[in-house]
Amino acid sequence: MGTIRTDWLASTDGAVERLTEDLATIDVRSSIFLLQHFVDTLDPPPDALHGAVLSTILMDACGRVVHALHEQNPPVKCGCEATIWSHVSRFAQWRDADPRVAFRDWLQLFFAGVEHDHPADIAVRVAQMIRREPNRSWTIDALAAAVDARPAILRREFMTRFGMRPSAYVHLARVMRAIALLRSTTKVETVAWDVGYKSKKDLYAALSRWAGSTPTELRALSDDECRWLERELRMHCLRGVGDRSANLRRVDVSKPSPSTDGGRGSSGTRASRR
User: Fold this and answer.
1) Is residue 170 located within the same domain as residue 243?
2) Which of these three, 117, 136, 155, is where a domain ends?
3) How far, CA to CA in Å, does 165 sit from each of 83, 162, 209?
4) I want to staple 265 with a disulfide (CB 3.0 to 4.6 A). Which of 192, 217, 220, 269 is the partner?
């Protein structure tokens, strides 16, 4: 019996862990290209033994994808878990077929079911519109008209889904874009204008609310701290502030975090949660 190459296993496990992190911060319904890229970057199994291991790893990846989708969407009766079990026989053919092919086929089956079992409701569709164009002067009437809904119904559905009004979500989406721009040498006034504000005062207020920081403090963050902050805010965008299971709080980068913070920062960093 052969042995598993440690370099191959480490590379494969690393790709799965990166995928898991990505799934927590993107809309799973629109992540098919990310998942296809994930499997395309995996090294092929050099022999049947590695094929058996890869089959197990990719079935676990299927479960992670389903879990991430259900974390982002209200629980409903769906066939997501069933798609994995229905594909077990395909993954079991590791002696004769590359497990990566089975995973690609599963993706097509899974996403076909997602469209049927987890269609985007009006709140999610509006959130997607806002994230695409946060610099627009969105009004509740314009958003409601875009999804063919009454403003009062949209406001209620959005509050239920994301724990905030659409108007607040606009500011959150603008902060997400502003953080990336503030990592450059672009003037604060220009950043404010680019993300949809008429003055830098409005940008300061939004940053204070959603990131607990000023532009100067953001620019002082390390790359790792900034990536963590962006990840937390993306999770806010997808799951809302009212989702207890996500356990999200407003981000605060104004205070040093402890040296043992689960990898979100190191001793002396400012990225923390309150």
Assistant:
1) yes
2) 117
3) 35, 8, 15
4) 269
